[in-house]
From TrEMBL, chain A:
The keyword Transport applies. Keywords: Amino-acid transport, ATP-binding, Nucleotide-binding, Transport. Belongs to the ABC transporter superfamily. CDD domains: ABC_TM1139_LivF_branched (cd03224). InterPro entries: AAA+_ATPase, ABC_branched_ATPase_LivF/BraG, ABC_transporter-like_ATP-bd, ABC_transporter-like_CS, BCAA_Transport_ATP-bd_LivF, P-loop_NTPase. This is ABC transporter ATP-binding protein. It comes from the Bacteria. Residues 6-239 form the ABC transporter domain. GO terms for molecular function: ATP binding.
From TrEMBL, chain C:
The keyword Metal-binding does not apply. SMART domains: AAA. Keywords: ATP-binding, Nucleotide-binding, Transport. Gene3D superfamilies: P-loop containing nucleotide triphosphate hydrolases. SUPFAM superfamilies: P-loop containing nucleoside triphosphate hydrolases. GO terms for molecular function: ATP binding. Residues 4-252 form the ABC transporter domain. This is ABC transporter ATP-binding protein. Pfam families: ABC_tran (PF00005), BCA_ABC_TP_C (PF12399).
UniProtKB/TrEMBL annotation, chain D:
Pfam families: BPD_transp_2. The chain crosses the membrane at residues 20-39, 45-63, 95-115, 122-143, 174-192, 224-246, 258-284, 296-320. This is Branched-chain amino acid ABC transporter permease. It comes from the Bacteria. It is a multi-pass membrane protein. Its main location: membrane. The keyword Zinc does not apply.
UniProtKB/TrEMBL annotation, chain E:
The chain crosses the membrane at residues 6-28, 35-54, 60-82, 94-116, 136-160, 191-209, 221-250. It is a multi-pass membrane protein. This is Branched-chain amino acid ABC transporter permease. Signal peptide: none annotated. PANTHER family: ABC TRANSPORTER PERMEASE PROTEIN (PTHR11795:SF451), BRANCHED-CHAIN AMINO ACID TRANSPORT SYSTEM PERMEASE PROTEIN LIVH (PTHR11795). The keyword Repeat does not apply.
């Protein structure tokens, strides 16, 4: 497969003695959007952090454009074209909005292009333009999330790893964000790996999907297939909240365990 | 069995500052002593005994020094300590040494308490800071008829000795005490202090400062054009490096001390020999304190020899108290007696001229 | 008398009016939601109640007492506990220790007794522990009891924060986006928890939440905020169908984790 | 490997987790009690010195390890404890009373100083307290009526209920006296940690904002922490001065504060054990170094060698294990407990990252 | 006139503090670490210069030696980062504090070994000669200190304010992880800033040594420079300069007008007073956290 952009093979990552990723393998093809679903503590964040070099894997390979990148310093990974929009915003709190965005373009040097991209971000999120001189640490939670996403866009990546981009965003903005992601994917061909608790929107946007549980991949397939699965419907889409589970408080057993 | 003495060995100790603010004093002194002991040991020792010289570093900190004394006296079982540095440090050490009768010889402090009771086991090498300062003031008063005296000092035991001498002796010398300033070891700016002393009309300024600070003070006074004043240092500031500051910055600085400067006599035979030996052994130029260290070791060696093969505390004391000789290295007469445990009583007055200390008076 | 009353409260950051002449009241036993676009001033309202900020004008009363007269650390003593939007736990401590800090306002012994570990201290410790274990059971936190916060996933931390607030047995619970970062399943749990907190524990809840599915299910009353001012107030259904709210906040195609909303 | 099946809340509240731990510490105590029988007076003096350092270190540990405030001014409080204790003893206050009062006085003064210092964080607090330590030196000189300034004081012999204890005549009694103080302080420390106040300390360390939101009076908690910390350190200072035999303004130089901080970090920040392990290193290392140089024959005394080597060793300690000796020990213990299931690189540090501390 | 003389001398004095403080702030601004060895760095820089310039050692002409000194100190700073500080990357700041304090010990020892413990004088062209304006006197070195400090502060300030690298350094200090996410080579940048701090220390050392004698304990003035940096608001470059000037000016005035015993207290008393009213210094870099 020539259009394979990112491949993870048998990855294992530890926090000291705790094994958080237990042999994960997955593939992301060029131009596709892949979503990773999973409950709390399944290891989604750890997986993304390992790919972007923030954490060191103990075993396994990460292959990006034919190159093995596991264990690289994170800045090299970024240079190679992988950008990670982290969970929990992680903006530079004492720098202004503008400076935060400027840092997004740290690896680039084409001034005109950078300015164009910054205007694009301001166009997506007008509130950021309004607050361009405000220290990022004093923005509201949602505003910081917009800044984190905007900053990621400024890097002009080949692939974006998005960890819960809709976290703390209003319903309106969530829709807008996903519309933007869709546009980026379709018009600019940016590949994406998306971790999202809002599975409905995520599956709507994604082409392929993986489901993680306790550090392992337990299910994979095209987004449509996953969306049709009964387990996914009841655990990630909540379709049976009103129906099957209804006012029942106990949970149905997951069949993939 | 005498502590620290065996048939083949006699153990001597020193609690010194090898890394603290007085390392510039302690290090050469220890080196000098080592030089002498090495020579003696190489020549077969004294009465068949090799000298083992154990040096502990207290970095000028009191708790460390008690720790060091504890080690030397209770573990290494030294016979005597020599060249131990620092007044309070020595005083604390007396508590351990006195009960055991361990000797304290030529401590590197010119404080008068070094001969406090019980005086049996204590010997000092040269005049106290107090006497040096007094002598220096007397010289300047007599020579130039100066009367207004001031002092600059660090608030340490050393500083206090000198400032007390200045204050207490001024009147008896026909002078008046006018003003004082105090300083910290890390101070580097003295314009304010110099201005103050100048406006108070000081004619003689006694100094009890760190070496670096002393140089800066004299330089600052020159820079500000204050020339009608004499600065007076003691043996603590009586260093070649002070005289050798380029540009004649320290020209005209006086120092009262217990010996005659080494470099100024570097062509005389005894100093020349010492300078050569020291540089060969340590690769560094010999200094006045190296000479003091060597001399102290020499004193001890002479006493050990005189005490004879049967070395006990009593025989050693008797030997020390009978010691009398002229030290051509120091250019001073050294004489101990049962009544006098201070070896050299000479006080020399020197002044910096052309980068060297020149001897101008002697008491 | 309402449990919590804000009366024409205004707060400015430099030139920016974060809360603009806002009045609202929360009745005892209600679950009250504050919604609104990002940057509307919702968290700021919470921070005002916690006394981290002092309003330029207006008054805040809790159970008739003037909150503005209190220092920040005295507010919990009134019976107000809160969680934070971005999670502010004691990250070097374990879950158990975090929850025990929640009991701080119920301490009875003094420093000397604690140093000597008098029997009264031990009795008190048992009592705290008992209360905390109840919370742990309620929130299913048993597996994490002795884990350090630093090693917990985001979702669990959210629950621990709720637990810490609950451990203090408050009368009013302020929840800043309790369901953000939670999966559908966990959001459902959150719904039941909030229900129980209100029904069985008798605690009034004021929460900020963007998941309109959750808001619709657990809240009695919703206030929509925009630019620091009140946009609409009423039942969830009323607010959700308010045209201005749809325009500024919900959008036309609102989705919640549990599926489509409108 | 031991498993803990807990059936009672008291199991978490008790001093010792289980019988095994209890017997371990009991054995340690017996060893400590029997120590004078086993070693000569010189080493016993060194052991006493270690314990004194440990007391002072426990004081700073409470502040830095538990509450997260870095103080470089604790030498000033050691001085205060020492001078006040000795002055009271000279005024014929019985030793036990003078000693305890010295702790109380230091604690109260510490708490008073803490009130303005509370607004400071991190570097600012460290430097302000460092200034305090430097000032203490000058203040002792200025108060020479009481302190005898630079000449310093000789420590009076300790009169314990009519029984005289002097450092050189009865080192064994001195050792037991110090051991008793150590046990008392350690017990108080442990008790605090398992009580609401100890948790409040940790809360203030980790997040002032949410501590406040839980009803912790941050200012008061910090004041108390500072006060208790100073009191303990003051006791350590009193013992250090009495033990040294003589002390003056330079005894409690600011370098002492720095050594104290190094000690608790090398030992393991935040652990009681850390204070003891650190004390062993700080008090013994110089001795070990000077003994090793003695071993290699006298040779030429290398000036400053000791502090130079000391610096290198400290650096190696930190590089080898930033969590301190106790942190390392915990890992070794876990490894042994899990044996043979432990993985070799189980304790390989996962990459870690810092965030700014400029946000409060 | 006297007052004016005190003021001007104090300013020159303060600039030395300012220069060392600049080194502190530089490292803090880019890594949030506090380098307790900066004073000893300065002392080392001065001795390296002395070793190259003085006739009893290498005897290289002063102006030729300068670039060499900067190179040596820069490389030393960089090596230090690679060998020592990277091993504690991401660890608590206290670890860095201890490491740098210990490093100070080592530097003092090494310098004492190489150049001895006695005070020496640098043969610097700046050391000789005074400038007189009316009754006012200033050493050449004083003037050089003032000019160089102003230029350095301005350049560094501009560097952090205007350049991409400066911005990246600030970012790296605020959130190392996020800086990596932006593709900033955080560790390499920290190495560069340590190298830069080495060079700044060398400049400070040369100027310090031109003003007077030098010995291995000279690094202790780092403590006063620390006070200066804190007064200015640790982390602010203009603040470091201002703090240095304040401490520098207060000293001569205190020793001129305060009674003996009290004058030396002045800088530290001033520090405590400033912190009482502005807990985070004059140009505070600390913010309340928004929750
Ligand atoms: N710093 C850490 N130390 C130890 N264990 C950790 C650490 N961080 C995470 N873990 C463990 O790793 C596992 C995976 O965590 P991760 O944060 O990747 O989950 P997640 O899928 O992103 O969850 P969430 O949806 O809540 O964000 C969890 O079980 C957690 O306990
Ligand atoms: N300390 C501050 N300084 C300046 N502006 C601030 C500060 N705190 C908040 N703001 C501004 O006040 C406004 C309200 O912020 P707030 O955090 O209350 O929003 P919010 O409603 O909670 O939004 P979100 O849903 O995104 O969390 C925002 O525009 C924010 O940028
Ligand atoms: Mg996650
Ligand atoms: Mg908010």
């Amino acid at each position: 497969m020539s259009d394979l952009l990112l491949e993870v093979r048998n990855l294992e990552t530890f926090y000291g003695p705790i094994m958080a990723i237990r042999g994960v393998s997955l593939e992301v093809r060029k131009g596709r959007v892949v979503t990773v679903l999973g409950a709390n503590g399944a290891g989604k964040t750890t997986l993304l952090k390992t790919i972007s070099g923030i954490m060191d894997p103990e075993k396994g390979k990460i292959i990006f454009e034919g190159q093995e990148i596991q264990g690289w310093e994170p800045h090299r990974v970024v240079k190679a074209g992988i950008v990670h929009v982290p969970e929990g915003r992680e903006v530079f709190p004492l720098l202004t909005v503008e400076e935060n965005l400027a840092l997004g373009a740290y690896t680039r040097s084409d001034k005109a292009e950078i300015a164009r991209d910054r205007d694009l971000v301001f166009n997506y999120f007008p509130i950021l333009a309004e607050r361009r001189k405000q220290e990022a640490g004093t923005l509201s939670g949602g505003q910081q999330q917009m800044l984190a996403i905007g900053r990621g866009l400024m890097l002009r990546p080949k692939i974006m790893l998005l960890d819960e981009p809709s976290l703390g965003l209003s319903p309106l903005l969530t829709q807008e964000i996903f519309a933007i992601l869709k546009r980026l994917n379709q018009d600019e061909g940016v590949t994406m790996m998306l971790v999202e608790q809002n599975a409905a929107v995520a599956l709507d946007l994604a082409d392929d999907g993986y489901v993680m549980e306790l550090g392992r991949i337990v299910m994979s397939g095209t987004a449509d297939r996953l969306a049709a699965s009964e387990d996914i419907q009841s655990f990630y889409l909540g379709h049976d909240t009103e129906g099957a589970r209804g006012e029942r408080r106990w949970k149905r057993k997951k069949t993939w365990r | 069995q005498t502590q620290g003495v065996s048939d083949t060995e006699v153990v001597l100790g020193s609690v010194n500052d090898l890394s603290g603010i007085f390392a510039a004093v302690g290090v050469p002194a220890v080196n000098g002593a080592n030089l002498k002991f090495d020579q003696v040991n190489a020549a077969g020792g004294i009465h068949g005994r090799q000298i083992r010289f154990v040096v502990e570093d207290h970095a000028y900190q009191l708790p460390k020094s008690t720790q060091a004394y504890n080690k030397l006296i209770n573990r290494d079982q030294v016979f005597a300590n020599l060249l131990s540095l620092g007044t309070p440090h020595n005083l604390a050490g007396f508590q351990l040494m006195d009960p055991k009768g361990v000797f304290n010889i030529n401590p590197l402090t010119a404080a008068r308490e070094m001969l406090k009771e019980p005086v049996d086991n204590k010997f000092t090498g040269f005049s106290s800071y107090y006497d040096q300062t007094t002598a220096g003031m007397r010289y300047l008063a007599k020579e130039y008829g100066l009367t207004k005296v001031c002092t600059m000092y660090l608030p340490t035991d050393f500083g206090l000795e000198i400032s007390n001498a200045t204050k207490e002796q001024a009147e008896s010398l026909g002078m008046t005490f006018v003003s004082e300033t105090t300083h910290k070891p890390d101070e580097q700016e003295f314009v304010g202090a110099v201005q103050k002393l100048r406006s108070d009309g000081c004619e003689v300024v006694t100094m009890a400062l760190g070496v670096r600070a002393g140089i800066t003070v004299v330089g600052t006074a020159k820079q500000l054009g204050w020339t009608d004043v004499k600065f007076l240092a003691t043996s603590a500031g009586f260093l070649e490096a002070v005289a050798a500051v380029p540009g004649g910055v320290t020209d005209g600085l006086y120092a009262a001390s217990g010996w005659v400067d080494l470099q100024a006599r570097r062509d005389d035979p005894a100093p020349a020999k010492f300078i050569a030996e020291y540089e060969a052994a340590f690769g560094q130029p010999a200094t006045g304190f190296a000479m003091l260290g060597y001399n102290a070791a020499d004193t001890v060696v002479r006493a050990l020899e005189a005490a004879g093969p049967d070395l006990t505390q009593d025989s050693f004391r008797a030997a020390m108290e009978g010691l009398e000789y002229y030290s051509d290295l120091l250019d001073t007469q050294i004489k101990y007696s049962p009544e006098n445990h201070q070896g050299a009583n000479d006080i020399t007055i020197s002044v910096v001229e052309n980068g060297l200390w020149k001897l101008v008076g002697r008491e | 008398m309402s449990l919590l009353e804000l009366d024409s409260v205004t707060l400015k950051f430099g030139g920016l009016t974060a809360v603009n002449d806002l009045s609202m009241s929360v009745e005892e036993g209600q679950v009250f939601a504050l919604v609104g676009p990002n940057g509307a001033g919702k968290s700021t309202v919470f921070n005002l109640i916690s006394r981290f900020y002092t309003p330029v004008t207006g008054s805040i009363r809790f159970d008739g007492k003037d909150v503005l007269k209190m220092a920040p650390h005295e507010v919990p003593n009134l019976g107000i506990a809160r969680t934070f939007q971005n999670i502010e736990l004691f990250h070097q401590a374990t879950v158990l220790q975090n929850l025990l800090v929640g009991r701080h306002r119920h301490r009875k012994t003094n420093m000397i007794a604690q140093m000597l570990h008098l029997p009264s201290v031990r009795a008190e410790e048992r009592e705290h522990r008992h209360a905390v274990e109840e919370v742990i059971d309620f929130l299913d936190l048993q597996p994490y009891r002795n884990s350090r916060i630093a090693g917990l996933p985001y979702g669990v931390r959210k629950v621990v924060e709720l637990g810490r607030a609950l451990a203090s047995k408050p009368r009013l619970l302020l929840l800043d986006e309790p369901a953000s970062g939670l999966s559908v399943e966990e959001t459902q749990n959150m719904r039941w928890w909030i229900d129980d907190i209100r029904r069985h524990m008798g605690i009034t809840v004021l929460m900020v939440e963007h998941d309109m599915g959750l808001v619709g299910k657990v809240c009695d009353r919703v206030l929509a905020l925009a630019d620091g001012a009140k946009l609409a107030e009423g039942t969830p259904a009323e607010v959700q169908s308010h045209p201005k709210v749809i325009e500024a906040y919900l959008g036309t195609n609102a989705v919640s984790k549990g599926g489509k909303v409108a | 490997m031991r498993f803990h099946f807990k059936t009672d809340y008291d199991q978490d509240i008790r001093l010792f987790e289980d019988g095994w731990t209890f017997s371990l510490y009991a054995a340690l105590l017996v060893l400590a009690l029997a120590l004078p029988l086993m070693i000569d007076p010189f080493f016993l003096g060194e052991a006493t010195n270690v314990l004194i350092w440990a007391i002072a270190g426990l004081g700073l540990m409470l502040l830095t390890g538990q509450t997260g405030q870095v103080s470089l001014g604790h030498s000033a409080f050691m001085a205060l404890g020492c001078y006040s204790c000795v002055l009271m003893m000279e005024a014929n206050v019985p030793f036990v009373l003078a000693f305890l009062l010295a702790g109380v006085i230091t604690g109260v003064v510490g708490a008073l100083i803490a009130i303005p210092a509370l607004k400071l964080h991190g570097v600012y607090l460290a430097i302000a307290t460092l200034a305090l330590a430097i000032l203490a030196d000058d203040i002792i000189v200025l108060l020479k009526e009481w302190t005898d300034g630079v000449n310093g004081k000789m420590s009076p012999p300790i009169d314990l209920f009519g029984y005289e204890i002097s450092r050189w005549n009865n080192p064994i009694e001195w050792y037991y006296l110090t051991l008793a103080v150590v046990l008392m302080v350690t017990l108080f420390y442990r008790n605090l940690l398992r009580a609401p106040l100890g948790r409040a300390f940790a809360a203030v360390r980790d997040s002032e904002i949410s501590a406040q939101a839980m009803g912790v009076n941050v200012a008061q908690t910090k004041t108390i922490a500072f006060g208790i910390s100073c009191a303990i350190t003051g006791l350590g200072g009193a013992l250090m001065g009495l033990f040294a035999g003589a002390f003056n303004n330079e005894t409690f130089n600011f370098l002492l504060s720095i050594q104290l901080l190094m000690m608790i970090v090398v030992g393991g920040l935040g652990f009681i054990h850390g204070a003891f392990l650190g004390a062993v290193v700080i008090a013994f290392l110089p001795q070990v170094l000077s003994m090793t140089t003695d071993l290699f024959g006298r040779g030429v005394a290398i000036p400053g060698l000791e502090s130079g080597v000391f610096g290198v060793i400290l650096i190696l300690f930190i590089l080898f294990e930033p969590m301190g000796l106790y942190g390392r020990w915990l890992k070794i213990r876990t490894f042994l407990e899990l044996f043979p299931f432990a993985r070799k690189d189980m304790f390989k540090r996962q990459k870690s990252y810092l965030k700014t501390e400029r946000l409060r | 006139m006297e007052v004016l003389q005190l003021l001007i001398s104090g300013l020159a004095n303060g600039c030395v503090y300012g220069l060392i403080a600049l080194g502190f702030v530089l490292i803090y601004k880019a890594t949030e670490a506090v380098n307790f060895a900066q004073g000893d760095f300065m002392m080392l820089g001065a001795f390296v210069t002395l070793g190259l310039v003085n006739p009893e050692y290498a005897g290289i002409p002063f102006w030729l030696a300068l670039p060499l000194v900067f190179l040596i100190m820069g490389v030393l700073g960089y090596l230090l980062d690679i060998v020592v500080l990277r091993a504690v990357f991401g660890q608590s700041q206290v670890a860095v504090i201890i490491v740098t304090i210990a490093l100070g010990f080592v530097i003092r020892f090494a310098v004492g070994e190489i150049w001895g413990h006695e005070p020496q004088s640098l043969r610097s062209p700046l050391a000789l000669g005074d400038v007189r304006i009316g009754e006012l006197v200033l050493g050449l070195a004083d003037i050089a200190v003032i000019i160089v400090t102003l230029i350095m502060t301005f350049l560094l300030w501009q560097f952090f304010q205007r350049t991409k690298m400066g911005l990246a350094m600030q970012a790296a200090s605020q959130n190392q992880m996020a800086a990596y996410y932006m593709g900033i080579p955080v560790k390499r940048i920290q190495g560069m800033v340590w190298a830069l701090a080495g060079i700044v220390a060398a400049v400070a050392g040369i100027l310090y040594a031109s003003k007077g004698a030098l010995d291995p304990t000279a690094g202790f003035i780092g403590i006063k420079a620390f006070a200066a940096a804190v007064i200015g608001g640790f982390g602010s470059l203009p603040g470091a300069l201002l703090g240095g000037l304040i401490v520098g000016v207060i000293e001569p005035f205190a020793s001129r007008y305060l009674p003996p015993g009290w004058s030396q207290i002045a800088p530290y008393a001033l520090l405590i007073a400033v912190l009482l009213f502005r807990p985070h210094g004059l140009f505070a870099q600390v913010r309340a956290k928004k929750v």
